[in-house]
Amino acid sequence: MNTPTAVDKDLADMMSAVFADHRAKHAPGDGAAARDLPLWQRLTELGLVRLTGREESGGSGAGWSEAAELLRAAAWHGVRLPLAEHDLLACWLLESAGLPVDSARRTVCLLDDSGTTHGVPWASAAERIVVLWQQDGIFRAADAEISALTIEAGTNLAGEPRDTVTADPARLSGTPVPDSVVDGVRLRAALVRGLQVCAVLDRILDLTTTHATQRVQFGRPLARFQAVQQLVADIAAEATLARAATEAALATAVRTGWSGAEAEFRIAVARSCAGHAASVVVRNAHQVHGAIGTTREHRLHEFTRPALAWRAEYGSVHFWDDALTTTALTAGPDLWALITS
């Protein structure tokens, strides 16, 4: 099985340290920090805000392995920022369209036929929004100022901004972009959420293992009870399966340039595995933690709520199950090659 290139340990440690230092200053539940300008500025100074951007346009020129590690570190520490939306989606789209990129914080949205998009991540915290829409059968992209859009605030289950954006394409100066770029945005966004789900599932496993080891009931640690052992084992198995599927999808997507049946199949597998894993992991973790796991003071909710919220974004579990089933039914003799490649 293909796996992403290993990330330099010093870089990974630096990423983790930045987020750990930030969380040390905030109480549980304070992780949605898109408006935390000092943190965003620090990440900018470290070259992490545009980690994968082209160096000639102000980026750091890193790859998806480094980007995945950055997302993992942020999710592990419960810091929620529009890093993926800004770098991997919006700024990448601008570069692909040949449009200039400055230091403004961005997200991206695809308008429907009425000029509206619901559930846009971090729109109310963005300084500009890269807008996609279809006109006369051609997709167009514009780096829109907030003043040119109508934004209605909303949140997801994790308390992150998920806003409704409305625009009049006639007021936007759009640049034509090929369908392959739009497909790239869709697949990148889907896998980003898979990576983030896997990161919080790993953290939930860590928290649950620690709790089961340290919590004493009836004179012995919870981890000594067979029923608890089974719950924790299921968490570990589901989290490992989701991570393996997601890492395989990432390696395939990078190798194929985010296009083709193999990349779509692998991403569908990853999202399906991660989505179903989230159900088991969240349920079992709260069973092991008991009442303490439902309190605001305990950090468990910082990871279980995002797991359930993120698995439903850029395609629900049902959507990716259907996509996977359709591919399997239509692949014919090529199905085995898709599975084993």
UniProtKB/TrEMBL annotation:
Entry keyword set: FAD, Flavoprotein, Oxidoreductase
Domain Acyl-CoA dehydrogenase/oxidase N-terminal residue range list: 10-98
InterPro entries found in the cross-reference section: AcylCo_DH-like_C, AcylCo_DH/oxidase_C, AcylCoA_DH/ox_N, AcylCoA_DH/ox_N_sf, AcylCoA_DH/oxidase_NM_dom_sf
One Pfam match: Acyl-CoA_dh_N
UniProt keyword Oxidoreductase present: yes
Domain Acyl-CoA dehydrogenase/oxidase C-terminal, first and last residues per copy: 195-312
CC cofactor: FAD
Family, per entry: Belongs to the acyl-CoA dehydrogenase family.
Name of the protein: Acyl-CoA dehydrogenase family protein
Organism of provenance: Nocardia rhamnosiphila
